[in-house]
Amino acid sequence: MPLIKNEDFIASLTDALQFISYYHPEDFVRAMTRAWEEEASPAAKDAITQILVNSRMAAEGHRPVCQDTGIVVAFLKIGMDVRWEGDMSVEEMVNEGVRRAYLWPENVLRASIVSDPAGRRRNTGDNTPAVIHMTVVPGDTVEVTVAAKGGGSENKARLAMLNPSDSIVDWVLDIVPTLGAGWCPPGILGIGIGGTAEKAVLLAKEALMEPIDIHELRQRGPANRVEELRLELVDRVNELGIGAQGLGGLTTVLDVKIRDYPTHAASLPVALIPNCAATRHAHFTLDGSGPALQAPPDLSIWPDIAYEAAPGSRRVDLDSVTREQIASWQPGEVLLLSGKMYTGRDAAHKRLFELLDRGEPLPVDLAGKFIYYVGPVDPVDGEVVGPAGPTTATRMDKFLDRILDETGLLGTIGKAERGPAAIESIRRHRSVYLMAVGGAAYLVSKAITAARVVAFDDLGMEAIYEFEVRDMPVTVAVDSRGVSVHETGPREWQQIIFERKRPS
Q1: Is residue 330 over pLDDT 80?
Q2: Residue 153: count of CB within 10 angstroms of its CB
Q3: pLDDT at 486 (0 to 100)
Q4: In the chain, N or C terminus with fewer CB closer than 10 Å?
């Protein structure tokens, strides 16, 4: 009967969490490379290029692939014959592993977890506690699957209690366009079918931990209804033309993973959870012989590509740009930004609103400036800033009109689309919204030449920073006339895909 030491469990989990912060799974890299090779949309290909270059940079530099280093989710299968050496509970061991991993000095990970979620929402400082799912199984080992799930994709989780006669395919095809691009496609859809409401959601999350194998499935053919569903959904979702980062293109999903479970005769629970372009999970087994450590992948699995902005990309001086100049920017145009910008996320915007309500001066002058929606990772080893990719812009939509109206802000930078009210506000104020690529955080950070906190330092990663950047690549997502590339791009590519499928 094996004896598993508390310290071996903790060390294995710490190692796995550090590992997945900078190494994408090999199956994901290969699938993304296939998508890059096949992509015909210039905007989508540019985004996938940034994701792949960022992925290799993170692997080489041992720094996070995304600034959102996720909420930790651990699935444990504990053998009935396992004995533990030590006095810690399993939950305590998991959270100690998380704490050590996220505070690791050589690669500090962003602490994103807040306690009192319905109240003061205070950051716990070490990304604990994790979400833990445990089952007891026959055997004498402990099998662990651990994931770091980003908020942008997790926020797009959906659950429906369908009628038994309803079409699962139709429901998925209705839901996916409503998710927008905040989940950072291309990625993976996890789908859970059956059980009860909570079981379906858990099945969907577990499905995301499986390897990407849709190409192998396509070659050998489906063996059951679930595999038929996977093939149908991959094709039908990609035919929507949403594409990388929602810009329009051929690949929206790399794979669809499905798990099912028996359910009540009157029920058909279905859950959908997307995994983003920062897919992160690892697996290990403890058998009492010591810690189980991850093996680094061969860097040759990454394609030999570099990121260069398209010829003719417009260079913009943020320190002198005017409203008249931004009026000439076109939807889908790539810009290279240089100069100073401010950062601000949900908590910072809430503080700014409180100051405006009281008639007090703001801590920064936003007139003629840009706000970048980002919560960066802390720097290490002389870095100016850690990985600093964009967060989902739609969360700031409710703040936008007043900020534009009362501060003279010129524009915003984030990821994914803006909602209708935000787009109308941008049009009315002759503002602009620029999109940085979600999943390219380390690459983006290399364009930041200086960073300092200028307000609300108690908010941690949600404080307001002043960034100085040089040639930071962004795409014009909503121009000053209110034209959104997240509307025009997918519509154009859905038609292109339809025409390609038509018999000649």
Answers
A1: yes
A2: 27
A3: 96
A4: C
